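Quick one, tokens below. Sequence please?
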């Protein structure tokens, strides 16, 4: 492969990775899919590829569909053990965030809800909502008709709809939300925490990888009780994470988040998605395998002083 062909691929790498991440919900799987596309690009006859970006998009999309259809991945996701992997603000894998649809497509709530979709529905939804491909282009990428693409999108939107668009937040807004949440959780007064939640607030936790399946909390009262329990420091929790982490406020998947960090290692994250100023969805992770990308990006990210020096 000549230098120009390699340069063309590298110019598309971040966009391809963000497409693969939305389709697979995993940074590691997305990187593997992009590497697979690179190997195919190396072996391709570049003189016969008229539009490299379109060709690469088609390859990555179909590589991801093959992965979603694989027996191993179907088994893992059907078993209920799968959760999307969180990404820190500024990570190029998050991709475009210019429109509400693009930001929504990478929210942890929507990535979780996309598990309801078939692989093709998921691909149509991502290509249309996050990357603004028209139905003719999507039909060509997926080998389906335009009418089928429209039908898949209609079903996908219906199944993924949360009924409550998330608030857009900047760094300052994220800090206000996360600090208020932490203060309420530490107050010992459950009613203060519930007051920050929507009436239908829910939460998901991976139980630090200690349980076979994620733990779901389907009501504000259950969310408040779980958060208070999680954020209460104990020696057993410190043993699990390997010490006393500092707690930082950040933005993860375009939402406010609290991050527990020891040295440069992220040992836990709590992501808070808000609607009309209240928290509608909380997503807690402490399983090391799901925090590898966050840990890799953390030293490259500028952040304020921790809100708690030692938890």
């Amino acid at each position: 492969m000549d230098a120009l062909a390699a340069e063309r691929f590298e110019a598309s790498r971040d966009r391809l990775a963000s497409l693969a991440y939305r389709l697979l919900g995993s940074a590691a799987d997305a990187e593997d899919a992009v590497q697979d596309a690179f190997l195919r690009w190396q072996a391709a006859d570049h003189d016969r590829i008229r539009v490299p970006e379109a060709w690469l998009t088609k390859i990555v999309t179909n590589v991801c569909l093959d992965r979603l259809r694989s027996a191993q991945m179907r088994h893992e996701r059907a078993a209920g053990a799968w959760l999307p992997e969180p990404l820190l603000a500024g990570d190029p894998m998050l991709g475009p965030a210019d429109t509400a649809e693009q930001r929504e497509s990478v929210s942890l709530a929507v990535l979780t809800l996309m598990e309801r979709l078939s692989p093709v529905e998921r691909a149509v939804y991502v290509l249309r909502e996050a990357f603004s491909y028209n139905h003719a282009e999507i039909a060509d990428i997926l080998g389906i008709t335009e009418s089928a693409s429209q039908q898949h999108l209609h079903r996908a939107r219906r199944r993924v709809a949360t009924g409550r668009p998330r608030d857009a937040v900047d760094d300052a807004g994220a800090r206000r939300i996360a600090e208020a949440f932490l203060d309420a959780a530490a107050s010992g007064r459950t009613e203060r925490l519930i007051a920050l939640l929507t009436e239908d607030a829910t939460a998901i936790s991976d139980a630090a990888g200690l349980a076979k399946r994620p733990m779901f909390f389907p009501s504000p009262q259950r969310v408040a009780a779980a958060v208070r329990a999680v954020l209460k420091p104990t020696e057993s929790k410190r043993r699990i994470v390997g010490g006393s982490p500092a707690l930082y406020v950040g933005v993860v998947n375009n939402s406010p988040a609290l991050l527990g960090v020891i040295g440069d290692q992220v040992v836990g994250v709590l992501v808070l998605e808000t609607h009309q100023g209240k928290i509608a969805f909380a997503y807690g992770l402490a399983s090391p395998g799901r925090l590898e990308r966050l840990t890799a990006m953390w030293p490259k990210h500028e952040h304020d002083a921790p809100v708690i020096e030692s938890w």
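The first strand starts at residue 197 and ends at 205. The radius of gyration is 20 Å.
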